[in-house]
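Notes from hallway chat w/ T.B., transcribed later so I don't forget. T.B. wanted the structure written out for a chain they're using in a teaching module, and asked if we could keep both sequence and structure tokens in one place. Agreed to drop them here.
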Amino acid sequence: MPPDIEHAAPYHGAQEVVTRSVEGPIHRTNYAQIHARALKVSQRLERDGIKLGDRVATIAWNTWRHLEVWYGIRGIGAICHTVNPRLFPEQIAWIINHAQDRVVMVDTTFVPVLEKIADKVPSVERYIILTDKAICRRPR
């Protein structure tokens, strides 16, 4: 993990981090929990074959989830490539292609944009939607 979160977790672990979730409610967490979840993100990315220098795009609002994935991506030496969600879909596709992002982590707000460009971003192997399991149910 990056040194800043490695310091924050033991020395400021109880310090509260408050953000509003994409789904609406205020969410409260702390640096110790962010550190623990970032480790899980790192482990999952490594299991998916992401390694040092690979690019992982994020298209997300400034929430605790985005903070966790940012630390998790950095934790394995991959490059966290934040993509501006206010751009046009064609611009987003061009940027993802230019960076050769292998994974895109996205808030639910931006899933419709990615659905429009999915066939135009061949480097993307996996999309990860940043939401709670209870909210994101797979159709059966």
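Follow-up for T.B.: The chain has a mean pLDDT of 92. Might be a good example for the class.
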